[in-house]
Specification:
Elements (H helix, E strand, L loop, with lengths): L5 H9 L16 H8 L2 H9 L14 H7 L3 H9 L14 H7 L3
Helix pairs in contact: 2-3, 2-4, 4-5, 4-6
InterPro entries: Ankyrin_rpt, Ankyrin_rpt-contain_sf
Keywords: ANK repeat, Repeat
Pfam families: Ank_2
């Protein structure tokens, strides 16, 4: 998800039960969050097609929408909002995605 390698993401998802689309890393980041942070819209679409949820939160309270907005990935934000990401969700710093984006100049 981080590199935007769509073929690898599809292969892993098609590989069976060993991969969960919402499995988080040690920081609580799901593949969707990682793809959103990097602005990989096509990977995000495949993850949604395979059951990813836009509302998952990382250990610090950030959502995929926070990560996409913070990094200036407008198309990723559009995809997340179309998949009903909570635009009012706040992270541990008390910021929603819009405030987070503004704070980072995006």
């Amino acid at each position: 998800a981080a590199t935007g390698d769509l073929a690898t993401v599809k292969a892993l998802l098609d590989g069976g039960d060993c991969v969960s689309v919402d499995m988080a890393d040690t920081n609580g980041f799901t593949p969707l969050m990682i793809a959103a942070q990097a602005g990989h819209g096509s990977v995000m679409q495949v993850l949604f097609e395979n059951g990813a949820r836009a509302g998952e939160t990382a250990a610090d309270g950030n959502t995929a929408l926070h990560l996409a907005a913070r990094n200036g990935h407008l198309e990723a934000c559009r995809i997340l909002i179309s998949e009903e990401a909570d635009v009012n969700a706040v992270n541990e710093a008390g910021l929603d995605a819009l405030m987070d984006a503004a704070q980072t100049g995006n």
